[in-house]
Specification:
Layout: E1 15-20, H1 23-31, E2 40-44, E3 54-58, H2 60-63, H3 73-79, H4 83-88, E4 99-102, H5 105-122, E5 125-130, E6 133-137, H6 147-161, E7 166-171, H7 174-183, E8 189-191, H8 197-201, H9 214-222, H10 228-233, H11 236-243, H12 245-254, E9 270-281, H13 284-304, E10 307-318, E11 322-334, H14 337-348, E12 356-368
Parallel strand pairs: 2-4, 7-8
Antiparallel strand pairs: 1-6, 1-7, 2-3, 5-6, 9-12, 10-11, 10-12
Helix pairs in contact: 5-6, 11-12, 13-14
Bound molecules: 2'-deoxycytidine-5'-triphosphate (DCP) and magnesium ion.
């Protein structure tokens, strides 16, 4: 949760949110221009010619065939066969086939860096929330009358100088700006002036609100709440009794109320990831399996950030919304993915026989800049993605980084990680 500045009304601020379109795919097209305009799938854990891995992202042409993030590559291939295969198979249509490429994080990071430089050139305050996404406080840099031209200037410069396309939303606060940047993707540019916020938000489906995963969305829909407009018209206290503090946030955001101030991002105090089960499970083996995937993701992220940790912890949410955390402190800071897995498994054993809604893994007590101590092989192949959302309502300030597995409820573990 960003700091609140006394006396600063949200209407006084102009916030932009920029998010690159199908970012990894756009990066691939930079170095392989023949892929432009083609259905293109970028797979995490994917190997050329194989069927392993999950979809990190798909170009909009590939999305038209039903390919989406976090889908298994096997499923993507059913919807969109490989071009090369289709070309030799008389039963397949080459026009309805696409290209598959493996993730190359180092390259995407370098493209991201170029985009960041441009964003920083246009705004004094930039909060980078992911590899392809940032909030800008542009109150000092523009006015509502000029906001559209201002945002177009940023968009054009990113496209001209970096070669990828950004969608940008401008609004009086962070949550509305994020929805605005998403509203007309790809190549979107949406400006929501203060007096238009309520009207703009009203038709937005609850799924599109930040922090609402499939599980929450289903609960809301079961209550007849399908849009932000419905949420805004709901009883605040009913939402609070159902979802706790988060319900209050949802209600506020749906009404276009969000006092968070865009603060430049600092170094995190912890790194975490969590993932919900579509249906609470009493199978500790399944919980453990999910937790170990999260543990691997968190350890990799620590390596990428050159962070050592002294504490390894878990979070186990049991129905209805009981949050249990357990942690173990280590004698000294380490970078040891294997140890993270082992500690997580030991801490989880206490929950044998419990039904689990959500599981999370966190490393904390971080120490940075000790690359020499980090294991060398850890530098290979680590991948990083981002999101700030946490469906238990822990807002991410600069002091904590957490993320919710986007494959929540889909039954597949997304291999994505969030910074
Ligand atoms: N990503 C991932 N796994 C996910 C979601 C995303 O690895 N489950 C990666 C690939 C994306 C990048 O993160 O390119 C940015 O995420 P976005 O949600 O912004 O998705 P895209 O940029 O791909 O598409 P959009 O045009 O919807 O922004
Ligand atoms: Mg994007």
């Amino acid at each position: 949760m960003g700091a609140r500045l006394p006396g600063v009304e949200s209407e006084d601020r102009i916030v932009a949110h920029a998010d690159m379109d199908c970012f990894y795919a756009s990066c691939e097209r930079l170095r392989e221009p023949a892929l432009r305009g083609e259905p293109l799938v970028v797979g995490m854990g994917y190997e050329p010619g194989e069927t392993v891995g999950a979809v990190a992202t798909a170009s909009y042409e590939a999305r038209a065939f039903g390919v989406e993030s976090a889908q298994a590559i096997t499923e993507a291939l059913e919807r969109l066969p490989r071009k090369r295969v289709a070309a030799t198979d008389p039963d397949l249509d080459v026009e309805a086939a696409g290209f598959y490429r493996p993730v190359d994080m180092a390259f995407y990071e370098s493209v991201s860096e170029e985009v960041r430089e441009i964003l920083h050139a246009h705004a004094g305050t930039v909060r980078e929330v992911s590899i392809d996404e940032a909030y800008l406080d542009v109150t000092e840099e523009t006015t509502w009358d000029e906001a559209e031209d201002f945002a177009r200037g940023i968009k054009d410069r990113i496209e001209r100088e970096v070669g990828v396309v950004a969608s940008i939303g401008v609004a009086p606060n962070m949550s509305t700006a994020k929805i605005a940047s998403d509203a007309e993707k790809p190549d979107g540019l949406v400006v929501v002036e203060p007096e238009a916020v309520r009207e703009f938000l009203a038709p937005v489906p609850v799924e599109d609100l930040h922090g609402v995963g499939p599980v929450t969305a289903r609960t809301l829909r079961d209550r007849g709440i399908e849009t932000a407009g419905h949420l805004a018209g709901a009883e605040r206290h009913a939402l609070v009794s159902e979802f706790g503090e988060r319900g209050a946030d949802l209600y506020d955001r749906a009404r276009g109320v969000d006092d968070r101030v865009v603060t430049p991002k600092g170094r995190p105090k912890s790194l975490s990831r969590e993932s919900a089960f579509a249906d609470p499970t009493g199978d500790l083996g399944a919980v453990e399996e999910r937790a170990l995937t999260l543990a691997a993701a968190v350890s990799e992220r620590a390596i990428r950030k050159d962070a050592l940790y002294r504490t390894i912890g878990i979070k186990v949410v049991t129905p209805p919304f009981d949050v249990n955390t357990r942690a173990r402190s280590l004698p000294g800071p380490v970078d040891d993915p294997e140890l993270v897995g082992r500690v997580v498994r030991e801490l989880l054993s206490e929950f044998e026989g419990e039904r689990v809604r959500k599981v999370g893994v966190r490393v904390s007590n971080l120490e940075f800049g000790s690359a020499a101590q980090a294991s060398l092989d850890g530098w290979a192949g680590s991948e990083d993605v981002v999101d700030g959302s946490s469906s238990e309502g822990e807002e991410d300030g600069p002091e904590a980084e957490s993320s919710t597995d986007r494959a929540e409820g889909s039954g597949q573990a997304s291999l994505s990680q969030f910074e």
